[in-house]
Amino acid sequence: MSGGMRLIIALLTCALGAVASLDAAQAGRLKRVLIFGDSLTSGFDLPEGAGFAWALRRHLAQRGRSDALVMNTSRAGDDTAIGVDRIPLAFSAGADVVIVELGGNDMLGDVDPGVVYRNLEKIVHHSKRVGARVILTGMVSLPKRDPSYKKRFDAVFPTLAAREKVPLYPFFLDGAFGNPRMMLEDGEHPNAAGSDYIASRLAPLVAREMNAVDRRAHGHYGYAGR
Protein backbone atom coordinates (compact mmCIF):
# COMPACT_ATOMS: atom_id res chain seq x y z
CA MET A 1 0.00 0.00 0.00
CA SER A 2 1.39 3.43 -0.92
CA GLY A 3 2.12 6.10 1.66
CA GLY A 4 -0.55 8.30 0.09
CA MET A 5 -3.22 5.63 0.51
CA ARG A 6 -2.17 5.05 4.12
CA LEU A 7 -2.47 8.77 4.74
CA ILE A 8 -6.00 8.88 3.34
CA ILE A 9 -7.04 5.91 5.44
CA ALA A 10 -5.54 7.52 8.55
CA LEU A 11 -7.42 10.75 7.89
CA LEU A 12 -10.70 8.93 7.40
CA THR A 13 -10.09 6.83 10.49
CA CYS A 14 -9.48 9.99 12.49
CA ALA A 15 -12.73 11.50 11.24
CA LEU A 16 -14.68 8.35 12.01
CA GLY A 17 -13.09 8.22 15.44
CA ALA A 18 -14.47 11.67 16.13
CA VAL A 19 -17.94 10.40 15.31
CA ALA A 20 -17.48 7.37 17.54
CA SER A 21 -16.58 9.59 20.47
CA LEU A 22 -19.99 11.28 20.34
CA ASP A 23 -23.32 9.88 21.40
CA ALA A 24 -25.65 8.63 18.69
CA ALA A 25 -27.77 11.80 18.63
CA GLN A 26 -24.76 14.07 18.20
CA ALA A 27 -23.20 11.82 15.56
CA GLY A 28 -26.42 11.84 13.58
CA ARG A 29 -26.35 15.63 13.39
CA LEU A 30 -22.83 15.85 11.94
CA LYS A 31 -22.46 16.85 8.31
CA ARG A 32 -19.59 15.17 6.48
CA VAL A 33 -17.66 17.74 4.44
CA LEU A 34 -15.31 15.87 2.12
CA ILE A 35 -12.35 17.73 0.63
CA PHE A 36 -11.28 15.92 -2.53
CA GLY A 37 -8.20 17.63 -3.92
CA ASP A 38 -4.47 17.86 -4.41
CA SER A 39 -1.57 19.65 -2.69
CA LEU A 40 -3.46 22.95 -2.51
CA THR A 41 -5.85 21.44 0.05
CA SER A 42 -3.68 18.65 1.48
CA GLY A 43 -1.75 20.99 3.78
CA PHE A 44 1.39 20.63 1.68
CA ASP A 45 4.55 21.60 3.60
CA LEU A 46 2.51 23.00 6.50
CA PRO A 47 2.45 21.89 10.14
CA GLU A 48 -0.58 20.05 11.45
CA GLY A 49 -3.43 22.42 12.14
CA ALA A 50 -2.26 25.05 9.63
CA GLY A 51 -3.75 23.77 6.37
CA PHE A 52 -6.97 24.45 4.51
CA ALA A 53 -9.03 21.71 6.16
CA TRP A 54 -8.29 22.93 9.68
CA ALA A 55 -8.98 26.53 8.69
CA LEU A 56 -12.26 25.57 7.03
CA ARG A 57 -13.37 23.76 10.16
CA ARG A 58 -12.67 26.88 12.23
CA HIS A 59 -14.48 29.22 9.87
CA LEU A 60 -17.51 26.96 9.65
CA ALA A 61 -17.68 26.85 13.45
CA GLN A 62 -17.55 30.63 13.53
CA ARG A 63 -20.56 30.64 11.20
CA GLY A 64 -22.48 28.39 13.57
CA ARG A 65 -21.71 25.14 11.75
CA SER A 66 -19.74 23.35 14.45
CA ASP A 67 -21.48 20.19 13.22
CA ALA A 68 -19.11 19.99 10.23
CA LEU A 69 -17.02 16.84 10.18
CA VAL A 70 -14.30 17.95 7.76
CA MET A 71 -12.63 14.96 6.11
CA ASN A 72 -9.59 15.77 4.02
CA THR A 73 -8.75 13.11 1.43
CA SER A 74 -6.58 15.44 -0.66
CA ARG A 75 -3.22 14.16 -1.83
CA ALA A 76 -0.27 16.11 -3.20
CA GLY A 77 0.54 15.44 -6.83
CA ASP A 78 -2.82 14.05 -7.88
CA ASP A 79 -4.36 14.99 -11.19
CA THR A 80 -7.98 14.41 -12.15
CA ALA A 81 -7.32 10.93 -13.57
CA ILE A 82 -5.80 9.77 -10.29
CA GLY A 83 -8.73 11.41 -8.54
CA VAL A 84 -11.15 9.26 -10.51
CA ASP A 85 -9.16 6.14 -9.62
CA ARG A 86 -9.37 6.86 -5.91
CA ILE A 87 -13.08 7.70 -5.78
CA PRO A 88 -13.96 4.47 -3.87
CA LEU A 89 -11.43 5.14 -1.11
CA ALA A 90 -12.09 8.86 -0.88
CA PHE A 91 -15.82 8.27 -0.44
CA SER A 92 -15.50 5.26 1.83
CA ALA A 93 -16.75 7.25 4.83
CA GLY A 94 -19.58 8.87 2.88
CA ALA A 95 -20.16 12.56 2.28
CA ASP A 96 -22.84 15.21 2.63
CA VAL A 97 -20.90 18.03 0.95
CA VAL A 98 -17.98 17.48 -1.43
CA ILE A 99 -15.43 20.16 -2.28
CA VAL A 100 -13.77 19.15 -5.55
CA GLU A 101 -10.36 20.82 -5.91
CA LEU A 102 -8.44 19.19 -8.75
CA GLY A 103 -7.02 20.22 -12.10
CA GLY A 104 -3.90 22.20 -11.31
CA ASN A 105 -1.59 19.25 -11.90
CA ASP A 106 -3.37 18.46 -15.16
CA MET A 107 -2.67 21.99 -16.32
CA LEU A 108 1.00 21.76 -15.34
CA GLY A 109 1.21 18.47 -17.23
CA ASP A 110 -0.50 19.84 -20.36
CA VAL A 111 -3.36 17.33 -20.07
CA ASP A 112 -6.01 17.96 -22.70
CA PRO A 113 -8.81 20.11 -21.21
CA GLY A 114 -11.39 17.70 -22.62
CA VAL A 115 -9.88 14.90 -20.55
CA VAL A 116 -9.87 17.15 -17.47
CA TYR A 117 -13.55 17.91 -18.04
CA ARG A 118 -14.54 14.27 -18.33
CA ASN A 119 -12.61 13.27 -15.23
CA LEU A 120 -14.12 16.04 -13.13
CA GLU A 121 -17.54 15.15 -14.52
CA LYS A 122 -17.11 11.59 -13.24
CA ILE A 123 -16.24 12.87 -9.75
CA VAL A 124 -19.24 15.22 -9.73
CA HIS A 125 -21.56 12.46 -10.95
CA HIS A 126 -20.36 10.06 -8.28
CA SER A 127 -20.81 12.72 -5.59
CA LYS A 128 -24.40 13.23 -6.70
CA ARG A 129 -25.09 9.49 -6.85
CA VAL A 130 -24.16 9.13 -3.18
CA GLY A 131 -26.46 12.04 -2.34
CA ALA A 132 -23.79 14.68 -1.66
CA ARG A 133 -23.94 18.36 -2.47
CA VAL A 134 -21.03 19.42 -4.69
CA ILE A 135 -18.87 22.54 -4.71
CA LEU A 136 -16.53 22.81 -7.68
CA THR A 137 -13.44 24.96 -7.18
CA GLY A 138 -11.80 26.23 -10.33
CA MET A 139 -8.26 26.57 -11.59
CA VAL A 140 -6.84 28.81 -14.29
CA SER A 141 -4.02 27.97 -16.63
CA LEU A 142 -0.63 29.60 -16.80
CA PRO A 143 0.22 30.97 -20.26
CA LYS A 144 1.12 28.10 -22.58
CA ARG A 145 3.02 27.79 -25.85
CA ASP A 146 -0.32 26.82 -27.37
CA PRO A 147 -2.35 30.03 -26.96
CA SER A 148 -5.62 28.12 -27.22
CA TYR A 149 -4.82 25.89 -24.22
CA LYS A 150 -5.52 28.51 -21.56
CA LYS A 151 -8.86 29.44 -23.09
CA ARG A 152 -9.98 25.82 -23.29
CA PHE A 153 -8.68 24.87 -19.83
CA ASP A 154 -10.14 27.92 -18.07
CA ALA A 155 -13.55 27.12 -19.60
CA VAL A 156 -13.64 23.61 -18.08
CA PHE A 157 -14.79 24.64 -14.62
CA PRO A 158 -17.54 27.19 -15.35
CA THR A 159 -18.89 24.99 -18.15
CA LEU A 160 -19.06 21.90 -15.93
CA ALA A 161 -20.59 23.81 -13.03
CA ALA A 162 -23.27 25.28 -15.27
CA ARG A 163 -24.15 21.97 -16.90
CA GLU A 164 -24.26 20.09 -13.62
CA LYS A 165 -25.96 22.95 -11.77
CA VAL A 166 -23.44 22.96 -8.92
CA PRO A 167 -21.89 25.98 -7.20
CA LEU A 168 -18.56 27.18 -8.58
CA TYR A 169 -15.78 28.91 -6.66
CA PRO A 170 -14.06 30.25 -9.81
CA PHE A 171 -10.37 30.17 -8.79
CA PHE A 172 -9.25 28.34 -5.66
CA LEU A 173 -6.16 30.54 -5.17
CA ASP A 174 -7.97 33.82 -5.87
CA GLY A 175 -6.58 36.57 -3.65
CA ALA A 176 -3.65 34.43 -2.50
CA PHE A 177 -1.76 33.56 -5.68
CA GLY A 178 1.00 36.08 -6.32
CA ASN A 179 0.86 37.41 -2.76
CA PRO A 180 4.08 36.40 -0.96
CA ARG A 181 2.39 36.84 2.42
CA MET A 182 -0.09 34.10 1.53
CA MET A 183 2.04 31.68 -0.45
CA LEU A 184 4.94 29.39 0.35
CA GLU A 185 8.35 30.26 -1.05
CA ASP A 186 7.65 28.06 -4.07
CA GLY A 187 4.95 30.54 -5.12
CA GLU A 188 2.59 27.66 -5.93
CA HIS A 189 1.04 26.56 -2.63
CA PRO A 190 -0.78 28.56 0.04
CA ASN A 191 0.92 28.99 3.40
CA ALA A 192 -1.00 29.03 6.68
CA ALA A 193 -2.22 32.59 6.13
CA GLY A 194 -3.23 31.82 2.57
CA SER A 195 -5.03 28.64 3.58
CA ASP A 196 -6.94 30.55 6.23
CA TYR A 197 -7.84 33.29 3.76
CA ILE A 198 -9.13 30.83 1.16
CA ALA A 199 -11.08 28.92 3.80
CA SER A 200 -12.68 32.14 5.02
CA ARG A 201 -13.95 32.82 1.52
CA LEU A 202 -15.18 29.29 0.88
CA ALA A 203 -16.82 28.83 4.27
CA PRO A 204 -20.01 30.77 3.41
CA LEU A 205 -20.52 28.60 0.33
CA VAL A 206 -19.90 25.41 2.29
CA ALA A 207 -22.26 26.56 5.04
CA ARG A 208 -24.93 27.28 2.42
CA GLU A 209 -24.61 23.76 1.04
CA MET A 210 -24.80 22.35 4.57
CA ASN A 211 -28.01 24.32 5.02
CA ALA A 212 -29.30 22.69 1.84
CA VAL A 213 -28.52 19.28 3.34
CA ASP A 214 -30.59 20.30 6.37
CA ARG A 215 -33.50 21.36 4.15
CA ARG A 216 -33.33 18.09 2.26
CA ALA A 217 -33.52 16.19 5.54
CA HIS A 218 -36.79 17.99 6.18
CA GLY A 219 -38.23 17.10 2.80
CA HIS A 220 -37.00 20.01 0.66
CA TYR A 221 -34.94 18.97 -2.38
CA GLY A 222 -32.93 20.47 -5.19
CA TYR A 223 -30.25 23.11 -5.46
CA ALA A 224 -32.39 25.93 -4.15
CA GLY A 225 -30.60 29.15 -3.34
CA ARG A 226 -27.93 28.97 -6.05
Write the layout of secondary structure elements.
Elements: H1 3-20, H2 24-29, E1 31-37, H3 39-42, H4 52-62, E2 68-72, H5 80-85, H6 87-90, E3 97-101, H7 104-108, H8 113-129, E4 133-137, H9 147-164, E5 168-169, H10 192-217
Parallel strand pairs: 1-2, 1-3, 3-4, 4-5
Helix pairs in contact: 4-10, 8-9
Question: Summed up, what is this model?
Answer:
The protein is about 50% helix and about 10% strand.
Any low-confidence stretches, pLDDT <50, length ≥5? Answer: 6-10, 16-25
User: How many individual β-strands?
Assistant: 5
What sequence of helices (H) and strands (E) makes up the elements? HHEHHEHHEHHEHEH
| Relative helix content | 40-55%
Fill in the CATH topology.
Rossmann fold
Q: Give me the secondary-structure category.
A: alpha/beta
Protein name: Arylesterase
Organism: Methylocystis echinoides
Domain SGNH hydrolase-type esterase: 35-195
GO molecular function: phosphatidylcholine lysophospholipase activity
Description:
This protein is α/β, with parallel strands linked by helices and 226 residues long. It has one domain (3-217): SGNH hydrolase (Rossmann fold), CATH 3.40.50.1110. Helix content is 51%, strand content 11%. The protein has ten helices and five strands; from the N terminus they run ααβααβααβααβαβα. One of its GO terms (molecular function) is phosphatidylcholine lysophospholipase activity. Residues 35-195 form the SGNH hydrolase-type esterase domain.
